[in-house]
UniProtKB/TrEMBL annotation:
One of its GO terms (molecular function) is acyltransferase activity, transferring groups other than amino-acyl groups. SUPFAM superfamilies: Acyl-CoA N-acyltransferases (Nat). Pfam families: Acetyltransf_10. The lineage of its organism: Bacteria, Pseudomonadati, Campylobacterota, Epsilonproteobacteria, Campylobacterales. It comes from uncultured Sulfurovum sp. Residues 3-206 form the N-acetyltransferase domain. This is N-acetyltransferase domain-containing protein.
Length: 207
């Protein structure tokens, strides 16, 4: 398997969104498809816009993983106000089944409020990090992480946080040196991982 690691391009977006859907099963969780599409947009496009470090890995021309991160001491990402307004406009016009648009909006609000009690937005963070299921356990994720970690070394970054789920990737983060910081309640995580626990992990630099 020959991997190629490179910077993210706009043309990679569709493949990245497909990986997000594979990981969180939005097409299964949300109905109708229009609501599922918005959920995927929030997770994927929102993460692209909120990151200043974006790398993908491809095999045979296909994107099989990516990492989007924020280095608080690097160039700040652009303003997401127009993106947020566009999402709200789309939500207004959707007729939904359960979970409906109000459920999604409330889940987003509760998630952000509970998370903010632990960590603030704007810290150096792994914002979105996915490796396709077929390629997990082969060192791809560790290589993607090393790129972001090495970019942060030498800057004033003292730590990197990541939001994950205890039934999800928490064991992977522990393997690469992250330590559990805190748990928080999240209806968003409950949508995707029944019985799971949203949590924040932290990687500390010795500088």
């Amino acid at each position: 398997m020959k991997e190629m690691f490179r910077e993210y391009k706009d043309s990679d977006y569709t493949q990245c969104e497909e990986l997000v859907n594979e990981a969180w099963r939005f097409d299964y969780i949300f109905s109708p498809k229009a609501l599922s599409d918005i959920a995927k947009l929030i997770y994927t496009k929102g993460s692209v816009l909120g990151s200043n470090y974006k790398m993908v890995v491809e095999v045979n021309g296909k994107v099989i993983g990516f990492i989007f991160g924020l280095n608080e001491h690097s160039n700040k990402p652009g303003n997401n106000i127009l993106f947020g307004l566009g999402l709200l406009w789309k939500l207004i016009w959707i007729k939904c089944k359960k979970p409906n648009r109000n459920d999604l909006l409330n889940a987003l609000k509760v998630h952000e409020n509970n998370r903010a009690e632990i960590v603030y937005r704007g810290r150096s963070e792994i914002i979105l990090f996915i490796v396709g299921k077929e390629f997990q356990g082969k060192g791809v994720g560790k290589k993607l992480w090393s790129g972001f970690k090495n970019m942060s070394i030498g800057s004033e970054v003292k730590s990197i946080i990541v939001e994950t789920n205890k039934l999800g990737a928490s064991s992977f983060y522990e393997q690469i040196g992250f330590r559990h910081l805190a748990d928080f309640d999240s209806p968003l995580h409950e949508f995707a991982t029944k019985g799971g626990q949203a949590c924040i992990y932290e990687y500390q630099f010795n500088n």
